[in-house]
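User: Before I run my own analysis I want an independent prediction to cross-check against. Here's the chain; please return only the structure tokens and, at the end, one sentence I can use as a sanity check.
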Amino acid sequence: MIKKNKIPDFFIIGAPKTGTTSLANYLGQHEDIFFSDPKEPEYFAVNFNRRPISNIDNYLKLFNKIDSKDNILIGEGSVNYYYDINSIKNILSYNPNAKFIFMLRKPIDLVQSLHSQLVFQGEENILDFELAWKMINERKKGNKIPFLCRDSKWLFYSEWGKLGNRLENLLTVIDKDSLKIIFFEDFINNTSQIFDEVLHFLNLKNKNKIIFSTLNKRKQIKSLYIQKMVHLMGDISMKLQNFFGIKFKFGIANFIKKINTRTSINKKINKNFRLELELFFKEDIKKLSELTGVDLKHWYTK
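Assistant: Structure tokens:
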């Protein structure tokens, strides 16, 4: 038997670059969990452009081929859900009992890593993060948006880093018992323990051996122009998937992407710019600290 018209029981909602891909992989290895493929269908993020899945029928098809075991849980992990509270409201309108996993990270590291990821994907054409940061207000006016950028909101780095504001908004619509908060540092340093906590949150037990490998490491491209071509092919695949409801893959694109990639080394930002970022995020971090009960002074002081 197959479950019909089934949507996820839980959602990994971000923030970006906090280990969501790794957690999704670990949970997907559990025998009582079915995790979405693609990991980020983004269906409920209606205020974002060019979503991988924008049709409800195609979204439900992602979960059609699931064994009808009574205790199986379904999850997905679209990190942009946390950016817009309407995404969470849309989810709850379909599943009022949904649970949410919110992963956090030091804002300065988060936004810098997000910038690196967008450059890698061909969606950001300003290679220097400080220059990209200074362009935020101009881009909020709709100017200087790269052609291949899925949605200009991805370039508003200051907004993605305001974790305190995001959590405050989430708590207006999500019951605390339905929200699991994970700090990136804890996830990296105590992966097995945090994974067990997540299973407990989902009312599951750790039945089988999980392989804890690190995924979605920061990557760097060798050629921006080649990456733009690869990203354009991916965009075509996305449009075909939304139209036909079938996942299309371009093998040559994946091959080109692989040879155009190298592991990125964290680039240090200059002292003055770091102080500017620490000051910018300081009050929001304080709010996050109050909401979580976790002392986060080390996020904005040495």
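Sanity check: The chain is about 45% helix and 10% strand.
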